[in-house]
Amino acid sequence: MYPLFRTLGLVAALLAASEAPLADQTRSALDLQQALDLALQQDPGPASVRQEAEARQAEAIAAGEWDDPVLKLGAANVPVDSFAFDEQPMTQKVVGLRQLLPRGDSARLARERGSLLANAGFASADDRVLQLARDVSREFLTLAEQLRTRELLQDNRRWLEELVTYNRARLASARIQSQQLLQSQLAVTRLDDRIAAVEGRIITTRGRLARWLGNAAWAPVETTPPRWPELESWLEAQSLPVPPQQLAGHPALTAADAQVAAGERGVALAREAYKPRFGLEVQYGQRDTEDASDFAGAAVTFDLPLFTGKRQDQRLAAARARESAGILQRQELLQTLHAGLNAAAARATTLAERRQLYDRSLLDQAEETADAVLRGYASNTADMEAVIAARLDAIEAQISAAQLDYGYFRALAELRYYLAGGPDAAPAAK
Questions:
Q1: Residues 163 and 285 in one domain
Q2: Domain stop point among 290, 308, 326
Q3: pLDDT in tens, 182-218
Q4: Are residues 191 and 251 in the same domain?
Q5: Number of neighbours of residue 14 by Cβ within 10 angstroms
Q6: What angle do CA 385, 391, 392 make, to 5 degrees?
Q7: How far is the C-alpha of 332 from the C-alpha of 242, rounded, in Å?
Q8: Three-state SS for 283?
Q9: Residue 160, in any domain of the structure
Q10: Is 381 exposed, middle or buried (0-12, 13-18, 19+ CB in 10 A)?
Q11: PANTHER family given for it (predicted)?
């Protein structure tokens, strides 16, 4: 057996012996579910939207109530020369109460409109949670992909270092020229540059994750892809295009529906402005003169919305425009979500097919080719350039396979966002 093969066998044995402690280390690494839980705890976005919805809910209750009654206290017909209350029979002390009634059905409509806006806010908060899970999953899986790429490059660097050692031994025995040793050393240096580039991308991705995870973004990360069997089964059962009915119940659409309904109440509320607003008023007048009876009075008041051109008409036109805008925005949102759902499903389907191709044949073929060229080099039937090229092809195949794996799960993370409210949605976190 050639020295290189004996050395590689020894390295493989050492790596196998170290698998157990490495597994213990990964148990304490941050996994995707832990990252999602931590992000949900630390991100203020959903909580702020929910607080705004609670404020709208409180305002809706207040909007449905009547105005406070008005108490009137005063004096009438007081003589200015003496200011006496018992001198003139018409002088009286007056107490009155006035209550304005809601204009038509405006109180109920205002309460319903406010409640619908509050519901839209709560649904928007749920959508923010889904967006947070999607964004964190995407960045976390990108980081895991980069870490896996670095691991593959480091493993292959050790292989090339063994090749350099092997070439030194052959050069010392005058079996090869120094050019072949230099070629293998150059391959190691180029691989070092790639590892450094990946390290830079890892740091950048950790920096983006720190937005949601804080210092935990710099902790060790579990690189094993998540398990989403329900979603994978759903994807296998689908044919493109995915029908828009799969989006039914999505929080973003729920919020848009509530906004449309609130717009309808806004139009109805604007129509109520054409009705008069009634008020009730009662008062009692006490007289202090002898043999003078006290006075009591009651009245009904109402305004006259006669000049509506620049007030009620304009407000109704504005309400109708807002209602139309809400309907159009809802339609645009549905189209956007449907397009995103189909794009994610198509991407996941394509990546799944390519993953199968790599698993079935491409990875094995690349590795077998690299081993065959290496055996040819050991028997002087292949040159060093071919050995390095074959090994680099095998490295690229391994990295491409890793990119396909993590790209596939990033596409599934997108699908989890779009299907969160659908009948076939997988759980939000598992």
A1: no
A2: 308
A3: 777 787 888 889 889 999 999 999 999 999 999 999 9
A4: yes
A5: 9
A6: 90
A7: 17
A8: strand
A9: yes
A10: exposed
A11: OUTER MEMBRANE CATION EFFLUX PROTEIN
